Amino acid sequence: MSRFPNPIPTPASLKARSLVYDLKARLDWGEPALTIIDVRDRNLFNISHIMGAISLPLNELVDRARTSLEFTRDLYVYGEIDEETAEAAAKLRAAGYINVSELRGGLAAWKAVGFPVEAIPYAAIK
User: Is the confidence at residue 7, as pLDDT, over 70?
Assistant: First the structure.
């Protein structure tokens, strides 16, 4: 062990349940080894979602995840409500995914603190 503390702060490791600040810290750190999964209905995803998230609706989540995501990859999952998020995380864990984190508050919490989203302009959804 070094006598000197690490001068460069590192983001916290993945937790079973994360705050939006935890995910933002990892994104700001530039850590690419994670995937953000939006399990809401695809129409809701198309209207607005966390910048960089992929759409894997709950009813196709495990099948689509198995074809495209490594079982050891860090996954941040969010749904419309925390119960949907918890259900999605449980499905992924049961399918063998090891590093799954439930993003508490989902998109609403992300937007509430002003973090970046991808969204259809209001005029386009009228």
Answer: no
φ/ψ region of 103 (left if φ > 0, alpha if ψ in -120 to 50, else beta) reads beta
Provide the CATH topology of domain 17-120: Oxidized Rhodanese; domain 1 (3.40.250)
The whole-number pLDDT of residue 14 equals: 79
- The residue among 88, 80, 84 whose CA lies nearest residue 109 is 80
Residue 54 to residue 38: CA distance in whole angstroms: 6
Q: Letter for the amino acid at 91?
A: K
Residue 8 Cα to chain centre, angstroms: 25
| pLDDT confidence of residue 15 | 86
Give the relative orientation of helices 82-94 and 61-68 as an angle to the nearest 10 degrees: 50
CA 38 to chain centre: 7
